[in-house]
Design a protein that fits this description.
Layout (H helix, E strand, L loop, with lengths): L1 H23 L8 H15 L12 H11 L1 H22 L4 E10 L5 E2 L14 E2 L4 E12 H73 L4 H26 L1 H9 L24 H11 L1 H22 L4 E11 L8 E10 L3 H4 L1 H64 L4 H38 L14 H16 L9
Helix pairs in contact: 3-5, 3-13, 4-5, 5-6, 5-7, 5-9, 5-12, 6-12, 8-11, 9-11, 11-12
Length: 503
């Protein structure tokens, strides 16, 4: 009979458990097309929100300021820095003691009663009795502090503080490379803006000459082989011009992406007149020391080394005994109690003795982590020294290549001028003029490409030395203030060396 009654209860409990577990199961929920569409629209609005509109042609300084302020990769690094700071705030709270408040209510369907049993005879010695009410409320307020946990949290907070500094250095690196990319992309786009206006008339002239040649061929006015050879050369020139036009069409969208301008939105550039040659006032023999002092990667490696050292300290602190202090005040509504309110205090010492057996391995692992960080920093020092020399060689060679390319472009322009002056009003004369114009256009394209590469090498040299495009403390983060800070920093780099150029 007892079994008969018990089985339905077990069955009911199993059924309820199955229903609860089934209701709590998590199933894949793919995003719908409508959800993705809504997210896409919101993202597009957020990507280009709160930006200063482009109302005038963009200078190089403004392009760099826009990249610094609106570039999404830079924004990500800024958010990572802010997140690291928030995690440091949380780590500081771990240093505080625990202050715990608790309150509760209990109710039983029967009386909590008990009796006693004689340990010798095994007979019941007292009638069942109770010292607890069926309903009771309880409240506690406790203050506890574990000294061992405090020590571990202290070293953990120091590690997080170094992670904040390391995150700042990673953001410095992103900004330096971003400015280098902006320099090169700006001059590529400036060349595209200028040359695109020259390509279309030249393409129209070549297409007209090609049509005239085909008409002459059809009318049999010239030898067919001569006409076909003429057309072949013209088609080759048209193909070159089409290739140049397609290449130039990609330059301004790339720059717009760096500045976080909306794709497809037209804008104009205002490059400076002529081609200035950027110079660094830093002596080559001083570059190695400057790079070792200011490169963000090396500073970050030093912080990682400190993080590893604190990890060693934290591991050793975990081997010590834990001492916990407790102070509390309590309340219980049970009427059977003589004292419904009371306070207590205590101290507790605990020690995981098995950790002592593993102390050697724990210390060795922590020391290995520290040694690894140190060796990584030393290896990075060597890499930085190599990068300085490579960047300087590339910088000087790009400058020489640009000077030669400029001379070649000047010669091509003079050839074009003489060809136009000597051109006769016939098909053969048009071919010579088109050939000379195409050659001059390609040389001018190479000139802008060479100058963009020169500017990129200059920016890479600056980044290799660890120089920041803007000071750490800027009066504001609006575009005019950032532009002025960039100009002032550039002037300082080009000024005669009288001190630390990185400041």
């Amino acid at each position: 009979m007892h079994t008969t009654i018990l089985m339905p209860k077990k069955l009911l409990a199993a059924t309820l458990a199955t229903l609860v577990l089934g209701g709590c199961a998590i199933h894949p929920r793919p995003l719908t097309l409508e959800q993705r569409s809504g997210t896409l629209q919101a993202d597009q609005q957020t990507m280009f929100a709160e930006q200063t509109p482009v109302t005038a042609p963009i200078t190089l300084d403004e392009a760099m300021a826009r990249a610094l302020k609106y570039n999404l990769d830079n924004r990500v690094k800024m958010m990572e820095e802010a997140l690291a700071q928030r995690q440091l705030d949380l780590s500081n709270f771990d240093l505080l003691p625990q202050l715990t408040a608790a309150a509760g209510y209990t109710s039983r369907d029967n009386v909590l009663a008990s009796s006693s049993q004689d340990v010798t005879t095994g007979q019941q010695s007292l009638v069942p009795s109770t010292s607890s009410e069926r309903q009771a409320t309880r409240a506690d307020l406790g203050f506890s502090w574990n000294i061992l946990d405090f020590g571990v949290s202290y070293y953990g907070a120091r590690q997080q503080a170094d992670r904040v500094l390391a995150t700042q250095e990673r953001r410095r690196k992103v900004v330096q490379l971003l400015m280098q990319q902006t320099r090169q992309a700006y001059w590529q786009a400036a060349g595209a803006q200028k040359l695109q206006a020259q390509i279309e008339p030249l393409l129209a002239q070549a297409q007209q000459a090609l049509g005239d040649s085909r008409t002459i061929e059809q009318q049999g006015l010239k030898d067919p082989l001569q006409s076909l050879g003429y057309q072949r050369e013209l088609l080759g020139l048209v193909l070159q011009l089409e290739t140049i036009r397609d290449e130039l069409a990609q330059a301004k969208p790339k720059l717009a992406s760096i500045m976080n301008l909306q794709p497809g939105k037209p804008y104009q550039l205002a490059p400076p007149d002529g081609f200035d040659t950027p110079e660094l006032s830093i002596a080559p023999e001083k570059m190695e020391e400057m790079a070792l002092l200011h490169r963000p990667e090396l500073i970050e490696a030093s912080y990682n080394e400190r993080i590893g050292l604190n990890e060693t300290h934290k591991a050793m602190a975990k081997l010590l005994p834990g001492i916990e202090l407790n102070v509390g005040t309590h309340y219980d509504s049970n009427d059977f109690l003589v004292n419904n309110e009371w306070r207590d205090a205590g101290i507790q010492v605990s020690w995981n003795l098995l950790n002592l057996l593993n102390a050697k391995h724990i210390k060795a692992a922590a020391s290995a982590q520290y040694d690894l960080a140190r060796e990584q920093r030393l290896a990075l020092n060597m890499a930085v020294l190599t990068q300085v020399h490579v960047a300087y060689i590339d910088y000087t060679s790009r400058r020489q290549q640009f000077e030669l390319t400029r001379q070649l472009s000047d010669v091509e322009q003079r050839i074009l001028e003489h060809t136009r002056n000597a051109t006769e009003a016939n098909a053969q004369g048009k071919l010579a003029e088109i050939r000379a114009a195409t050659s001059a256009l390609m040389s001018e394209l190479k000139l802008y490409q060479s100058y963009a590469a020169y500017q990129g090498a200059y920016g890479q040299m600056v980044a290799t030395l660890g120089l920041d495009p803007v000071p750490a403390a800027v009066a504001g983060h609006d575009l005019p203030t950032l532009e002025q800070a960039i100009r002032d920093t550039e002037k300082q780099w080009a000024a005669p060396a009288t001190g630390d150029a990185s400041k």
